[in-house]
Amino acid sequence: MCDTTAGPNEPTASLPRPAPGAAVDPITLEPVDEVEIITLVDNVFDGLLTGDERTRRPPMGMGMVAAPQFEGGRTPAGMLAEHGFSALVRVRRAGRVTTLLFDTGLSPDAMVVNAGRLGITLDDIHGVVLSHGHFDHAGGLAGLAGRRGVRSLPMVVHPGVWTRRRLAVPGRPAEELPTLSRRALDAEGFEVIERRDPSLLVDGSVLITGEVDRTTEFERGMPPPHQAWTGAEWVHDPAVADDQALVVHVRGRGLVVLTGCGHAGAINIVRHAQRLTGVDRLHALAGGLHLGGPAFEPVIAPTVEALTGLAPDLVVPGHCTGWRAQHALAAALPGAWVASSSGTTYHLTAA
């Protein structure tokens, strides 16, 4: 998909610069010629899914691994799936390709193993973006550091990514969630860049939303058991304020919005991206939409209705979207909905 590629020793290609104005003010997002999203980690791997002109599926067998129970001692390996999300984003504009890593999955090894099985070295990554601080999106940072080294590799995060959080379900012992360590990331060599406001990367052609405006009435965030530590007490943390998305404008097509969990709400995120960029057309929405489980089932119907009104060309709900929401989205948007699966590549080009 590329003519020339920015070298991995050019980290400034993906450094953020402050976007003008507050979140409600317009930002000039430069259109791109091509964007490729490779799902490195998702909750599901289905080796029988078929592709099309914009979707490339990996085969069921991605090389051979040791398996002594078989004659010959080997068996084909598929892609790893886990409760986490990670995507590699390649953006081409004016003959130059820049590669960003958006989230890193749950475990230290799934992302790097899957990348290896896809023939991706991860050596050409220009920057890392974390959608938020939950451990199922940041666990693979250890594997990334161990596989390629990350000296001076920019990593864009919201300042709230370091928040201590726990789940305090009534009737059960409270369970504190793993919390990202700024000290550990600095020691590994990541160049951590904290931005609460929107940032423009890759010569102004990739937008990181920063904190998302919450404007819908139905997207109210996490239920009461999700709590954050204030320094003095545990309090309900519905907003997950560090939730942010990655946005690209494909020339002549519209916005491509990539979410991690979508804690801010899928519709809030899309509308926020539209307001920031002044681009009304939604071309594609991919990533976790956090509509799974009883607490979020009431949000499914209004989300589907609003998203249907936006008429996207491609919808790839993954990770924490939940099976009920998947069914509803597939029924409402049969021409746009595509099943997500670890190892799948989505190739979107300008009109």
UniProtKB/TrEMBL annotation:
Pfam families: Lactamase_B. InterPro entries: DHPS-like_MBL-fold, Metallo-B-lactamas, Metallo-beta-lactamase_dom, RibonucZ/Hydroxyglut_hydro. Residues 98-191 form the Metallo-beta-lactamase domain. Residues 1-25 are annotated as: Disordered. GO terms for molecular function: transferase activity. Signal peptide: none annotated. Gene3D superfamilies: Ribonuclease Z/Hydroxyacylglutathione hydrolase-like. This is MBL fold metallo-hydrolase. It comes from Actinoallomurus iriomotensis. The lineage of its organism: Bacteria, Bacillati, Actinomycetota, Actinomycetes, Streptosporangiales.
